[in-house]
Amino acid sequence: MQFRKEREGFWVILEKEEEIKSAVAKWSREHEIYGAAVFGIGAVKNVELAAYEPENNRWAKKNFKGFYELVSLAGNINADGLHAHVVISDLKFNTFAGHLECATVSTFAELFVIPTNRLKKVPLGNTALKKIQLQP
What we know:
With 136 residues, the protein is mainly β. It has one helix and eight strands, in the order ββαββββββ.
């Protein structure tokens, strides 16, 4: 991993074989960043995505083996780590999207991290969801 501080945030470049969520969580802890907006692109493999099923109050999950373009990553860093949604594309230009459970970088991934005040996620009622709790 490489990173560079900018006026408004950080460029974070993830290298081949790094797992995105764990690498970002480790980096953010090391730099004491517990609140941030995150955006990114790159290339990944062995991806697991999830989608929330409200009628069953559970997460449906799907694995994607092989290589994919990371068309878009958008999310946040909070006290629990990285929460991101992604769009990936296969070599036939089919796209898939969802909540990022895990993904390994296949070549590199370029992220821009914009630090904010600390973000805390709290359970949303009796669901399997958590949302950011804004504090004054």
